[in-house]
Specification:
The chain has a 3-stranded antiparallel beta sheet with strand order 1-3-2. A hairpin with a 2-residue loop joins β2 and β3. The protein is about 65% helix and about 10% strand. With about 180 residues, the chain is mainly alpha-helical. α3 packs across α7, α4 packs across α6 and α4 crosses α7.
Length: about 180
């Protein structure tokens, strides 16, 4: 791989990817600027769009959106009895309470979750997976993880581990705290 392609992050022997071509154009037009951040950010934006499009069909096959799956998965990961407060769901899914409420309305209407009063707090509520919700999320998480393995098949285990570490470090540097 020549130095120009290496600097732009191209992995193909016969040319640059879309972002690599943009970087080469900026290098030609504005050699005074270090545009290398575009190589990372631009590729992440492009990958995010591709990943969204590749992940959504797994959830859509069950009549759900990715945010719906996020709620179901948070409840399932919490362990038996698969129940959290709406506030706990907001924190673990990292969306607003309004978005969480809309998701819960859809999931409750589909019979996948049930809301009930919190026995320890008269003003509070608890959200629990129904038996159908448990079955659905268990089926979906298996399909989702399989799909993610497919999407990462171009990277070996060492590359995936290194990428995960780098993304976590970058996220923390940008102020993305761990979910508590």
């Amino acid at each position: 791989m020549d130095d120009e392609r290496a600097a732009h992050g191209s992995a193909t022997p016969d040319g640059l990817d879309h972002v690599g071509r943009i970087l080469a154009q900026w290098h030609r037009e504005r050699p005074d600027l270090d545009v290398s951040p575009m190589g990372v950010i631009g590729r992440l934006h492009r990958l995010a769009r591709v990943l969204d499009a590749e992940l959504a069909p797994v959830f859509a096959a069950e009549g759900l959106r990715d945010g719906d799956f996020d709620v179901l998965a948070a409840l399932r990961r919490s362990g038996a009895p698969y129940e959290l407060s709406p506030g706990e769901l907001v924190r673990t899914t990292m969306v607003t309470s309004g978005a969480t409420s809309k998701r819960l309305d859809r999931l409750e209407a589909a019979g996948l979750v049930a809301r009930r009063p919190d026995p320890d707090d008269a003003r509070g509520r608890r959200v629990r997976l129904t038996d159908g919700g448990v079955a659905t999320v268990d089926r979906l998480v298996a399909a989702h993880v399989g799909n993610e393995h497919r999407l990462l098949a171009g990277l070996d285990a060492d590359d995936r581990a290194a990428l995960a570490v780098l993304l976590e470090r970058w996220g923390r540097a940008l102020g993305d705290p761990p979910v508590t």
